[in-house]
Amino acid sequence: MRYTILNRAALEKRAQRTDDPRHRYYVALLSATSFDDYVEAIQGDTPVFPSTYGRGRVPISPLREYLYARDDRRWIEEVEQAKEDPRTESDYRDAFARELAEALKRTSADRRKRLVSAPKKARRITVTKTVFQRSADVVADVLVRAAGRCEGCRLAAPFRRQSDGSPYLEVHHIIQLADDGDDSVENAIALCPNCHRHRHYGQAATED
């Protein structure tokens, strides 16, 4: 079972008490992310006999100290096993949308509490992506036709490309290629980023 740390300061304080043989349990708790990893980090389940507990005559096993940190002190909390990583970019987008919906249901306080023990660096995963091999001539012709103006809102491109200084517009297929639309000039328009996102994700999106 995986766990997340709720009170890192308390675990670190215990880990620094080298006069107590249980300190190695807390060193392991800090470095591991699951009970199995915790036991492996300790290199076994041999109990220790701290002099501060039962005059050194009571054995304290790794499991007992784990349960103490989890249940009595609430320094750690077990979490559900992470789901399998998404295999495709579409799977990833769908999974993230579900996670975002759940996050928005939580209170601000709950989100802040979860963020305390959340990793600061995003984990990198590999997914597959299927793309259409588009015609560069279609893209070029549509951009020339637009002459630097969005064919959705009719406003000038919001900025210029860093690469060549040309107006930044994105070529969008009116009937998407995934829906068997043609990769043709007639089926494409040049849009600013805002209008392009609206065509894909906006509510009640319509063609102008």
Largest sheet: 2 strands, antiparallel
Arrangement of strands in the largest sheet: 1-2
Mean pLDDT value? 89
Beta percentage is 5-15%
> Quick one: how many beta strands?
4
Give helix % range.
25-40%
Rg, nearest Å: 28 Å
Uncertain parts: none
Count of individual helical segments: 8
Note the overall shape: elongated
**Spatial gap, N to C terminus:** 54 Å
Q: What would you call the structural class? A: mainly alpha
Number of domains: 3
Q: Would you list the SSEs in sequence order as H and E? A: EHHHHEHHHEEH
Explained architecture:
With about 210 residues, the protein is mostly helical. The protein folds into three domains: about 1-80, no CATH class; about 85-130, no CATH class; about 135-200, His-Me finger endonuclease fold (3-Layer(aba) Sandwich). It has eight helices and four strands. It has helices at about 10-15, 25-30, 35-40, 60-70, 90-105, 110-115, 135-145, 195-200; strands at about 1-5, 75-80, 170-175, 190. Strands 1-2 form a two-stranded antiparallel sheet. The protein has a two-stranded antiparallel ribbon with strand order 3-4. Helix 1 (about 10-15) crosses helix 2 and helix 2 crosses helix 3 (about 35-40). It is elongated and about 85 Å long. The chain starts with a strand and ends in a 7-residue tail after the last helix.
